[in-house]
Amino acid sequence: MPTALVTGAAGFVGRHFTRALQQAGYDVTAFDINPRSLPGVRLLDARAFFAANTERYDLVVHLAAVVGGRAKIEGEPLSLAVDLEIDAGLFQWALRTRPKRVVYYSSSAAYPVTLQDGHPPNTLAEPDIRFDYPLGGPDLSYGLAKLVGEQLAGYAEAEGIRVHVFRPFSGYGEDQALDYPFPSFADRARRRDDPFTIWGDGTQVRDWIHISDVVAATLAAVDQDVPGPVNLCTGRPTSFNDLAHMFADAAGYSPDLKHILDAPKGVAYRVGDPGKMLTFYTPKISLEEGIDRSLKANPWPS
Question: Can you tell me the distance from the alpha carbon of 74 to that of 91, in angstroms, rounded to the nearest whole number?
Fold first, then answer.
């Protein structure tokens, strides 16, 4: 039986990966610093694991990170510096234990924010990040940590470790915490909030992709040995105002929109170029279906 390691296994993405790998026949080792009493997920800090472990895994899906949505990215940037320590520990451990494959999740936040001002609307393609000139301009400390992680992945590849790097855009799903906009919008629409609150002026644009497509695309790339980096996205631009209207329409009401202009809002236009991903995987869940699923689901407890 092939073996897999999932770090950050109790988080939103980690839960889905752990389940998918178990269903695929892997013997999964899963841990998280906050396991939330999930069956099979051990209470363990990734840094302690990487310092002491000597096992060799067939597949490593590395998701352990300090997360918390836009409020944490803008409000607690130093807390995200821990991600640098976690990722450094991962790659040092990988050089010692030589896993067959490592999945490293970067982020669309690694792209230069100068390409995301919306003038003109620009889709972000993998070559827009280059490592042959000084790094600069990612989205605050979170984006910087992921950018450095990508560079560490490149060093590990040069040492013979197969690392698949992915840049997910705005992933969402029915069990995502309310720290993120998509489940928050679903919650407001489910309650039929009027007015319907939105951080910022609502014109900021994102590229939404369902978690099931994130997981399936990742595993397809690993199975087909697709070299990274790979954007995980749909290429469909949707503003926060439009998303709010879509949720309200699906919930059957017409609220006023209330904009919280002094709240964290992020970059103006973050949409990915899915061209590379589409060579091996096509997303299955449309935004409309994702909205319908989210409205019908019980939200994940905080």
Answer: 27
- Is the pLDDT at 52 greater than 70? The verdict is yes
Q: Which residues contact 251 (CB under 8 A, 6 or more apart)?
A: 189, 190, 192, 295
**CATH at residue 18:** 3.40.50.720
Range of the domain at 49: 3-175+208-236+271-286
- Going from the C-alpha of 17 to that of each of 94, 152, 293, the distances in angstroms are 20, 23, 19
For residue 240, what are the CA distances in angstroms to 5, 27, 164?
36, 40, 31
CA–CA gap between residue 213 and residue 95 (Å, rounded) = 30
Phi, psi values for residue 91, rounded to 5°: -75, -30
Express each pLDDT in 110-160 by its tens digit: 999 999 999 899 999 999 998 776 556 787 778 888 999 999 999 999 999
Would strands 238-239 and 205-206 be described as parallel, antiparallel, or unpaired? antiparallel
What's the total number of domains in the chain? 1
Q: What is the pLDDT of residue 301?
A: 44
Identity of residue 13:
V
For residue 230, the one-letter residue type is V
The closest alpha carbon to 47, from 29, 32, 67, belongs to: 32
Using alpha carbons, select from 223, 227, 255 the residue that is nearest to residue 241.
Answer: 255
Residue 125 Cα distances to 14, 104, 112, 230, 279, angstroms: 25, 18, 11, 9, 14
